[in-house]
Amino acid sequence: MGNPGRTPVGKRVGRVAALVVLVALTATGCSGDEILRFGWPVGVTPQANDMRWLWTWTVIAALAVGVIVWALIFWTATFHRKKKTAPGEEEELPRQFQYNIPLELFTVVVPTIMVCVLFFFTATTESKVLDKKPNPDVTVDVIAFQWNWEFKYEGDKAKRADGGQVSTVGSSGEIPLLVLPTNKTIEYKLRSTDVIHSFWVPEFHFKRDVMPDPEKNNQDFSFQNSIDREGSFVGRCAELCGTYHSVMNFEVRALSPDKYDQYIQLRTQTNPKTGKPNTASEALTAMNCGELCSPFAVTTKPFNTDRTARTATN
């Protein structure tokens, strides 16, 4: 009589094989690049690519270790169980490996080497991502407040006719656009006027907390990157900051350097119809360069503040 509590080896192997086939069939809907990104969006900065490759190889290393561990578990469970040498005799324990010094050294030394390698590549990638050049091409003050954003451009090129600096402030009716040039070094200086927020653009593969009085908190409140291609990318607050945190979105609009220069020039000029400096939407409308110069956000939409327009879900 066999032990009814035990699953035959054939059934166990069959279940594992079925799981492998299911995973393979599921993965066939993804391209090779999508699989290697492991859920990360396509990066648009060199820094994002560095972080993605660190993530990819870390996951591959973790999966390799997992496969080895799983194989050892199945091997041990299958071939190193108690077993009877003859009918009617007591089950015999399998060979024991305690006090095996070479095995113990292996289980200590190999994980230590793995941790050191992971630390090295993490530290070098972090150094690249946080590296700052002394004279960035564009500097933007990113000011967070409950529950929106202001983007203020520094430098003489961004000085308006009335003496102020070009800036964009979001409202409940309009998503703020952070217009930036491609292939230029951009520095972001982050500051909050109230609580802690977090500046996050998924395609940057990077986020940083936006602190009130960052100097007093000894926070590094700036970072740099460069954007590889034109496009529109949604930005979010990634720190729970109050009632309307979930709708505190903005949009990064990346333009070629010549279009960006045209945009900044238009922002410094006065609109003859309003007698005020051109807003972001007015400047982009005047540029008339297709969807890339859409006057309003295309990746997200404002929150509807009309309470009567919303109904409870069933």
UniProtKB/TrEMBL annotation:
- Chief location: membrane
Q: Which residues cross the membrane?
A: 56-78, 99-121
- Record family assignment: Belongs to the cytochrome c oxidase subunit 2 family.
Protein's UniProt keywords contain Membrane: yes
Please give the superkingdom of this protein's source. Bacteria
* Location(s), subcellular: Membrane
**Which catalytic reaction applies to this protein?**
4 Fe(II)-[cytochrome c] + O2 + 8 H(+)(in) = 4 Fe(III)-[cytochrome c] + 2 H2O + 4 H(+)(out)
User: EC number(s)?
Assistant: 7.1.1.9
Q: Which UniProt keywords apply?
A: Copper, Electron transport, Membrane, Metal-binding, Translocase, Transmembrane, Transmembrane helix, Transport
- InterPro entries under this entry? CcO_II, CcO_II-like_C, Copper_CuA, Cupredoxin, Cyt_c_oxidase_su2_TM_sf
Query: Which segments constitute the Cytochrome oxidase subunit II copper A binding domain?
Result: 135-266
State the name under which the record lists this protein: cytochrome-c oxidase
> Which Pfam families does the entry link to?
COX2
Which species does the entry assign this protein to? Answer: Amycolatopsis samaneae
Question: What does the protein in this record do?
Answer: Subunits I and II form the functional core of the enzyme complex. Electrons originating in cytochrome c are transferred via heme a and Cu(A) to the binuclear center formed by heme a3 and Cu(B).
Is Cell membrane found in the keyword set?
no
Note the topology in the membrane: Multi-pass membrane protein
